[in-house]
Predict the 3D structure of the following.
Amino acid sequence: MLKNRVRFGTALLTLLLSVAVITVTSASALSQETKSSQNIVREVRHQLLLLPYYTVFDNLAFKVDGDHVTLEGQVTNPTLKHDAEAAVKSIEGISGVTNNIEVLPPAPMDDQLRRALYRAIYGDPTLSKYGWSSMPSIHIIVKNGHVFLEGVVDSEADKNLAGLRANSVPNVFEVKNNLVVKSNR
C-alpha cells in the first residue's frame, strides 16, 4: 500500500514538473517571439522614417505578420514607394514584403491645396507644436480635392481643431479626419 502511494506520488510529481517545464519553455519561446516581432516593428518604423523623400504630404503605414511586412498608405512621389519597399526588404528577419502603397496622381490643384492646408493647420498656434519635429505628426493627404488627415495628436480638441482648420481651406471637397488621439500611458 505504501509502495503504491510512493509510486503515485512520484508519478504525480513527475507529471507536474513536466507540465511546469513545458509551460516555462512555451512562455519563454512566446516571449522571445514577441520580442522579435517588436524589434521588427521598431526597425521597420525606423527605416521608413529615414526615407529621404518622406514628407508631411505622404502617409506610410505597415503591418507585420511574423516575418512578412505589408506596406500601405499614400505617397506623392513614386520613388518613395520603391524606396520604402527596398528599405524594408533590407531588414534582417524579413522574408517578404507586400507593397500596397498608392502613388497619388500628380495634380497642380492638389499641390495648391497641400500648401494651403499646411499653412492652415501648422500655422495655427495650438497645432504648430506638431510641426516642430523632423517628421510632423499630422500628415495631409490630398487626392483629387479630397483631404485625409492621418497621424497622431495629443487630444480630442487638437484632432477637432485640425479638422476645422482643414475644412476652412477653399476648394476642398471633403475632409476625412483619421487622426488618432494618443492614449495616456
Notes: Residues 121 and 127 are 6 Å apart (CA to CA). The chain is about 45% helix and 20% strand.
